[in-house]
Design goal:
The chain contains eight helices and ten strands. A four-stranded antiparallel sheet has the order 5-4-6-7, with helices on one face.
Length: about 350
């Protein structure tokens, strides 16, 4: 229960960070903000300060930064619609940028608290490994690429190896300062016993480096890039039908998974670190997903803004804002329906 509460609080914080990005950018660029809300549904707490109503709402599944002239016509010179296109884009992108920054900072805090982190440099191998030797990997090799995919972290190694499961692997490593290409290696997962449990590993033990400020910054950046690539790969699998809707998770599934990740740890501190790591992944996930060119999402609004501005430059005619509002309304309705379906799927998983 501790981890679930911790996860819910952090999940709500990510929403606040996202909307806070829009809010701060709007204020900085002179846009009037009518309401800044965390959560959706009935208001639990409200306070008017200046021109802005601040509210905390019942359901921690969203939030909003309501700007003057955002979805309707307004004669207010401080309306969102009255601002230059570049200012609108900055405001729209700011939410995702703040989410990515939040994920980056959270990973940095976790790495700093741990005091060390693994790097994709081979330390040694487990028993039964067939790809070690002069024609394969050697202790001290830094793995740079796997089947053309760049390796920055140990997680990248597992991800690229898993993506090519059942196929020979071509690796590029750094060995004694030189790049060395290794072809047609058979690297497949094997089962091992760890603490009385059967686990699946590739049999490579990686070196561990002590945390330094520059090292933590680089490792945090690379970890967030790994998170972002994972999101893109998951979307690709969803579009191509490799995974189905039942594999997706909404707020209910995410909170449940956070609780499981925390409770499976051997200590409270370890559980909180696991939950924090997943929250960082979710933060980057939100940053990437919100920039997709889908109506009602920030990325969709940026895309429509570029289309309308491009149309104006070519024809000197404007597109009626009602069409953009209609598209965003339809997109929002579809997103709500998707959220309902995913939540229903999450509940069924819990029941089963």
């Amino acid at each position: 229960m501790l981890y679930i509460i911790f996860g819910v609080l952090l999940f709500g914080l990510l929403i606040a960070v996202h909307e806070g990005g829009h809010f701060l950018a709007a204020k900085k660029l002179g846009v009037q903000v009518n309401e800044f809300a965390i959560g959706m549904g009935p208001a639990l707490f409200t306070r008017q300060r200046g021109e802005t109503l601040y509210s905390l709402r019942a359901f921690p599944i969203g939030g909003y930064c309501a700007m003057e002239g955002e979805d309707e016509k307004s004669d207010n010179p401080r309306a969102f619609s009255a601002k230059a296109p570049w200012k609108k884009i900055i405001i729209l992108v700011a939410g995702s940028a703040f989410n990515f920054l939040a994920g980056l900072l959270l990973v940095a805090l976790l790495l700093t608290s741990a005091g060390s982190y693994g790097v994709p440099v081979v330390k040694d191998f487990r028993e039964g490994v067939s790809f070690a030797g002069e024609e394969g990997l050697l202790p001290g090799d830094r793995i740079l690429e796997i089947n053309g995919g760049r390796v920055r972290t140990c997680a990248d190694v597992s991800a690229w190896l898993s993506a090519a499961r059942g196929e020979p692997k071509d690796l590029v490593v750094e060995r004694q300062g030189e790049r060395v290409a290794l072809y047609d290696l058979t690297i497949e997962p094997q089962t091992y016993e760890e603490n009385g449990k059967t686990v699946t590993r590739y049999g490579i033990n990686f070196q561990v480096e002590q945390a330094t400020p520059l090292g933590v910054l680089a490792q945090s950046w690379n970890t967030c890039l790994y998170f972002a690539r994972t999101v893109w790969q998951s979307l690709g699998m969803l579009v191509t039908g490799q995974v189905g809707l039942q594999e997706m998770s909404g707020p209910v599934g995410i909170v449940t998974y956070l609780g499981e990740a925390g409770s499976q740890s051997s200590s409270v501190a370890g559980g909180l670190r696991n939950v924090g790591y997943l929250i960082a992944l979710i933060a980057v996930n939100l940053a990437v997903m919100n920039m997709l060119p889908i109506p009602a999402l920030d990325g969709g609004r940026v895309f429509l803004l570029l289309v309308t501005e491009g149309w104006y430059l070519m024809t000197r005619r404007t597109i009626d804002p009602k069409y953009e509002a209609w598209l965003n309304g339809v997109g929002f309705l579809l997103l709500i329906l998707l959220m309902i379906l995913v939540t229903f799927s999450d509940v069924l998983k819990l029941v089963n």
